[in-house]
Amino acid sequence: MRRERKFSFFSFLLTIITIGLLIIVIGGSIYLYMHMTENGINIKESVDDVKVSIKKAVEIVTNPNTSAPNISLSADDIQSIEIKQVRKEETGANYYFYNQLTDNGKMIYNMIEKNLDNMKTGSYTINFGTKFNDILQTEKGKADLKVDFQAAWDALALDNPMVFFIDVTKLYLTIESTTLGSKTVCNAYIGPEQGVSYLINGVKTEHIDEYEKKLEAIKNNVVAKVEGSDYDKLKQIHDVLVEQLEYDQTLSRNHTHDIYGALVEKCVVCEGYAKAYKYLLDGVGIPCVLVSGKGTNSKGETEEHIWNYVFLGKRWYAVDVTWDDPIITGGILTNSMKYKYFLRGSDSFNRNHIANNYLSNNSFKFVYPSLSVDDYN
Predict the structure, then answer these.
(1) Do residues 292 and 306 lie in contact, with contact meaning Cβ atoms separated by under 8 Å?
(2) I need a surface site. Which of 37, 122, 185, 308 has the fewest CB within 10 A?
(3) Three-state secondary-structure class, residue 345
(4) How far apart are CA 269 and CA 277, in angstroms?
(5) pTM to 2 decimals?
(6) What band does 9 get if pLDDT is binned at 50, 70 and 90?
(7) Nearest Cα residue to 257 out of 42, 309, 248
(8) Distances (CA, A) of 97 to 87, 91, 102, 306
């Protein structure tokens, strides 16, 4: 005898809910596809982002003790995250120039700094995707972003002397626009032009790690030997550079502007002296910044020049290691020469040093620390 199946309200309700969810999912998928197609969004990238979000959500739900920062992300996932670092320095010396950038400039600075190891290839491209799309839609957007790019590089080069292997003149900001219907989407990336390496002449990728180890070893050796007060350390490191370095009169050496030329090859121009002084002072924790401008020498000749400001006793003082190491023919370097530009205040130092707030002929204005009026006593 055939049994009659009893009507189950719960089963009926579950069926209705299931059908409703399917309709929502299918309808939502169709809408999402049409929206992404209309706005030129890359479907694969968007789906990958959804997968990452779902992965996070599942981990948090299944393990309530898991916090978001502990979730493991792939390198590609991390690359897509907008970095907003907060620099906490008592004097702001280590990231002194970073702190002056616009938000876009800071984003560019952070991405370059984050990818320095990748950039050792000389061909790595940093892809910002559509992060700058909003500003690039404005009338002056491209010009403003180029200013931010140059300012970001200037700030990074001044804040971090270890960026010695990249020739920024070979590094390009590229902006591409794609128009789909009435929508225009702008992508930006930084990389080489036409496959030309942006490493400085004479540097090969396989040598950079070796160069960095040599520099770290030299710095550690100097740091281990200096002692006493901050004044003593400033003077001892100043003396190491004056005694060991020579001014490059040929101006043609590959490393004449950087710390490798100063600390390993020991022959550089003023930029190499100043960067080496900052690099070593960073090692002993004494705030120091690079200052670019013009100097008028003893012959009355004005030339492009770079020196340092250092922080001592709650004040900033100027130090020009290069001019404390003058080229002497048939004579002896006296103490009056050796310390002529050591820990000077603005009254004496600015007589023949004029700081330039606009670096690389860029329209972005940097601000330097205010010098003590008087020399250090």
Answers:
(1) yes
(2) 37
(3) coil
(4) 13
(5) 0.75
(6) low
(7) 248
(8) 11, 12, 11, 15
